[in-house]
Write a structure and sequence with these properties.
With 256 residues, the protein is an alpha/beta fold. It has one domain (13-250): TIM Barrel (Alpha-Beta Barrel). Helix content is 34%, strand content 21%. The protein contains 9 helices and 8 strands. It has helices at residues 66-75, 77-82, 98-110, 129-133, 147-154, 159-170, 189-202, 218-223, 238-250, and strands at residues 17-27, 34-40, 62-65, 86-90, 114-119, 137-141, 175-181, 205-212. It has an 8-stranded mixed sheet. The longest helix is centred in the last third of the chain and has 14 residues, at 189-202. The radius of gyration is 19 Å and the shape is globular. The protein starts with 16 loop residues before the first strand and ends in a 6-residue tail after the last helix. It binds iron/sulfur cluster (SF4). Iron/sulfur cluster is lined by residues 43, 45-47, 50, 52, 55, 91-93, 120.
């Protein structure tokens, strides 16, 4: 007689649990169309301008199974599908929980939804090919091409993100690059020009979102008893934002 141990059975993908900070519907910022966005809890970076420091700790989230997330998304399936939207896994950092993220993305594909992964790419090595196969679009947040600036802004190096960007390019995986323009932190013109050249060389970057810094979230820092690194930083002017968009368009990219 053969004894089969329950633990030897792989969990059904939808049964994989994750730590979820929140979920929401959004339009225009988390991929094409109206999206069901699930924000995972936990992030290894500490971006100085982060709007959501309350997502940093993995334990800040509620335990949910991928099936529970997909049941929520399924309620809006027709609405978001009709609007050319889909499902986005964001964070925090979704690749801190790759099995959960993979299960949610794969399940969303089974529901017939367009899927997007919003990531800093710092943990890109944790995304296996199955996860990327279930991802129609990667929203890749590159904080700076300059290693020193990236470290100053995030507390971590940029090399893993750039390696992930190259891997996506080799897979010809559609990507939107996202760049947050923070005066005094990420506005070095040479660094931006280098980033634009790098992004253009990849061949899979469909568009670049230049996101002006805004001190949203400052109140969350004080509520958490944290200093806000961007206190006193003012949002960039429209002319500054236009100049940065032009740097990307000059490199042959679509920048919005
Ligand atoms: S990667 Fe995103 S969630 Fe993490 S610290 Fe940076 S802005 Fe915040």
């Amino acid at each position: 007689m053969t004894t089969v141990l329950a633990s030897a059975q792989p969990a059904a993908p939808a049964a994989v649990n994750g730590s979820v900070h929140s979920w929401d519907l959004s339009t225009g910022v988390d991929g094409p169309g109206t999206r069901f966005v699930v924000f995972t809890a936990g992030c290894p970076l500490r971006c100085v301008y982060c709007h959501n420091p309350d997502t940093w700790a993995g334990r800040s989230g509620q335990r949910m199974s991928a099936a529970e997330v997909l049941a929520l998304a399924g309620r809006y399936r027709r609405f978001i599908g009709a609007a050319g939207g889909g499902l986005t896994v964001s964070g925090g950092e979704p690749l801190l929980q790759p099995a959960f993220t993979r299960a949610v993305l794969a399940g969303a594909k089974e529901l017939g939804l367009h899927t997007a992964l919003d990531t800093s790419g710092y943990l890109g090595a944790r995304a296996d090919d199955a996860l990327l196969d279930a991802t129609d679009l990667v929203l890749l947040d590159i904080k700076s091409f300059d290693p020193a600036i990236a470290r100053r802004v995030t507390g971590r190096g940029i090399a893993p993100t750039l390696a992930f960007a190259r891997r996506l390019a080799a897979r010809r995986q559609p990507a939107w690059l996202r760049f947050v323009l923070v005066p005094g932190w990420t506005d070095d013109p040479d660094g931006i020009a280098e980033l634009a050249r790098f992004a253009a060389s990849l061949g899979n970057v469909e568009r670049v979102d230049v996101l002006p810094f805004h001190p949203l979230g400052a109140a969350k820092y004080s509520a958490l008893g944290l200093d806000y690194p961007c206190a006193g930083v003012t949002p960039p002017s429209a002319a500054q934002v236009s100049r940065v968009r032009a740097a990307f368009t000059d490199a042959g990219l679509l920048a919005v």
